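Sample entry (297 residues):
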Amino acid sequence: MLIGKLLKKVIAFTVLVTLCLSTKGYPETFEPVYRVSKKPSSYDFDGEELKFRLYWTIFHVADSVSKVKRIDGGKLKFWGRASTAGVASWFRKISDEGYSVWSEELSTPLKTYLYQHEGDYQRIKVYTYDLKRRIVKYEKINPKKKKVQIKYVKIPTVPFEDIVSAVYYFRRYGIFKVGEETVFPLFAGGKFQNVRFKVVKREKIDTLFGKLEAYRVIPSNNLSPEGAFKRKGKVVFWFTADERHIPVKAVAEVAIGSVSAVLVSAKGRGFDLRKECEERKKKALIEKVLTGEFGGE
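Predicted structure, serialized as tokens:
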């Protein structure tokens, strides 16, 4: 059914925005490139929770949530889930979930877990990174048939990111200056390649939290969902212009219409973006009243 296939691709884009980066077009040879900030952000991801609403053209079709938690041994756990919502729930239930256990010391993942549940289809993918032996153990599991496929891939460089940790790595180590490009190695789809994020503009954008200063960022062309939602044009991300670099919006031109992800909630240790923006508005209003810029005699 066409609508079912479309919904599957919508979920793929949701995951791309909030969790991971679909990749295609790998080069035959891989030479790692690192172009990252010399002064990374000191923002602590621990306790962060982001919620997004995803639209296909004007229709609300999916919701997603991502959470970060510090676990023992200097590791962070990046977790996320995307599922159908709104009108899409009438046609086909889709729920994808995944997490990455990430070493703060090495800035590299130690394990990646992905679970796809799309209608009757179920798949589990587990990537275990043996950094001492420089080997990835890739397990593809069919829960219904109880079938397991195992593949081993050589790790050519450390640090590198996986499909879950890449956006978090960019938020911490990205070069957030207009015209600058951040480059680092990514492992996805069983192979390694370099991914690029270029900051093209700093601007004020309208959000559900009011107007926010944000960096407009365009990723490299090899980051794209496949099938019905294969990129037809650019994918554009907007990250807040503060130390947190929170992704507030993403838009993709696709083969059928357009897909956009909008941040609806952002909370972390000591902050709630909605309350923060409301307090800023109140403060600005009070300042206008006190200086006589607001109101009349």
